[in-house]
Amino acid sequence: MAKIIGGVTTSHIPAVGNAISDGVTQEHYWKRFFDGYQPVHAWLDEKKPDVIIVVYNDHGLNFFLDKAPTFAIGCADQYENADEGWGLKPTAPFTGDAQFSWHLAESLIEQEFDMCTCQEMLVDHGFVNPVRVLYGDHEHWPVKTIPLAVNTVQHPLPSAKRCFKLGQALKQAIESYPEDINVAVVGTGGMSHQLQGERAGIIDVDYDLACMDSVINDPAWFYNQSNAEIIEKAGTEGIETIMWLVMRGALGDKVNCLHKHYHAPISNTGAGVLLLEAADE
Questions:
Q1: Out of 193, 259, 261, 263, which one is annotated catalytic?
Q2: What is the Cα–Cα distance from 97 to 241, expressed in whole angstroms?
């Protein structure tokens, strides 16, 4: 059967894609941020997952404010990236796994998560930059990918607890797949930041670090907060970090933290990286 081999968290900041394209990842401003991914690169090189499920939020390239599903999953064999602004150049298309995706969708719906299933799906920087920061740029990507979109843009938003429960359901869905494939789950977004209004530019380092510790050791501390409480601390766009809880829910009760890194500010955002594996029961 399919096996979850681990989980990763990462920010998906648009400027990250430009830094990769422009070849400036080792310049002073960017070096510490990108160096924080080196242990994750080594782990991916060793474990070589067959599929990564990328939990992200769409920023208007595929969905817009008039149609914003709470949860959506890609069910295609290929996903295109298109021009979305930010100066980001479109990447090569990503290879999906439609058969596995449909299994996940059916299992999640059986577990009472009403997924929007997408047989065609454009993926934006929320999906693309995490894959690029983990694997670099490729004409032919070395891993299959499945987009799992969570609405963190158009209110009402799913709660942190609902995202954690989605992760628990995702675990059951993955582990009921009969083929022997290794799967990694990537939770993207955040950390604390706000792009508009009187609090534009807010970064709360202490809260970010507390959330990272909670994801590792006590996810209930994080998911028992209301969205209003999270936004008050982390900013309007900081709510994206609830998507990390989808990844965490998929790993089971206890995890081993293999790597933890935090850097702020980077493009007006707090940025955290975690590499987790399920602990032996």
A1: 193
A2: 26
